Amino acid sequence: MDQVETKSVEVKSLTGKWVLDSAGTSVSFTTKAMWVLGVKGTAKVLSGIATVGDDGSLSAEIVVDMSSVSTANKKRDAHLQTADFFETVKYPTMTLNVTGATLRSEGKADVRGDLTVHGQTRPKTFPVEFSASDSSIEVTSEFDLDRREWGISWSKMGAGLVNHVTFKGRFERAPGAEPEGGSAAGAE
Questions:
Q1: Is the pTM of this model over 0.85?
Q2: Which domain covers residue 138, as residue numbers?
Q3: Number of domains, the chain
Q4: Average pLDDT per block of 10 residues along the chain, 188 residues long
Q5: What's the CATH code of the domain at 65?
Q6: Where are the alpha helices (DSSP H) in the chain?
Q7: Nearest-CA neighbor of 97 among 116, 82, 78, 120?
Q8: How many CA atoms lie within 13 A of 15 on its CB side?
């Protein structure tokens, strides 16, 4: 695991295990249909856990339920479940295994990990903004994913191949995982 570069953030206050609050977490995406029509969608997060080590190392796992993908269009949503797209009977989840992070500035980091979609794993780096207290960490990340990287290349009538994804998550300190002192990163 890589160490988070501390700069002005007190990493010690984040040491411990953190559990994702699924109710306080969302995954949304936008793409194009017919070259110009915007399509918005959401997916549900099943679970997530993160660990910040004494040395500032970060590891995490976030699991998304791909059968929950919804664009508010039943026909399109059913098609997204097929082998043309996510093939959810065979690959029901998308998983991000975080392997490290580098702090860019107060409340901003680049998070590295392995993203598994459609049974294929690719390394990715995601820009993240965060704020934290002793009991919770709020995380937001916006990034583009080209689904062709995971072998999902179906396209007809201008269907977008690149999706803009927004992840907003809330991690809560795991029971019994108390901070080791200092103020929390990003707390005001």
A1: no
A2: 11-173
A3: 1
A4: 42 85 88 68 93 90 93 89 87 94 89 93 94 91 81 60 84 77 39
A5: 2.40.128.110
A6: 74-80
A7: 116
A8: 16
